[in-house]
Amino acid sequence: MQINHDTRCALDQAVELLNTMADGDTPDTLVSVADLRAYVQQNDVSGVGDLTEDDLRAVREVRDRFAQVFAAEDSRTAAGLINALVAEAGTTPQLTDHDGYDWHVHYFAPDASLAQHLAADCGMALAFVLVSGERDRLRRCSAPDCRRAFIDLSRNRSRRYCDSRTCGNRLHVAAYRARRRESAEAGSSS
């Protein structure tokens, strides 16, 4: 799947936003305006002014809606969710070149709130994934104790874990140790 730089950034922003949600033992990490400001800085979200409690509430609502897109049973349901999200954001496509990047499209109005900005840009990026027939690339980690979101951009669509160095490696080590334990038990009983 080929995607341009801006679409990739928007997809990453959506995933990072989703991964701020509480999950099992992991607490919600988007609970204050300071957390929101940190998210904006970490993800290089452009054109963001002062942030307020209203921004935090609105971004958390957008986050919940992205979670619904990832959990959608089928493409028709995901499309309906994305269409509503983007329409409510007041999408205004505009060509722009900034921060050393060549011409690209921003889908949010210049005076958009942070929530509208994320809903429009990330919503359109998710729409591109859906339109290209790649909705199955919107995934949750397969590790039993991790449900972090990720987008599988591997060539063969084989990625199962949010991070192969943590979740994937941890499960492979556990499986290896279980095999060794079984082998040792089988050897001691003979």
From TrEMBL:
Pfam families xrefs: ABATE, zf-CGNR
Domain Zinc finger CGNR: 137-180
InterPro entries xrefs: ABATE, ABATE_dom_sf, Znf_CGNR
Domain of life: Bacteria
Protein name: CGNR zinc finger domain-containing protein
Organism: Streptomyces spirodelae
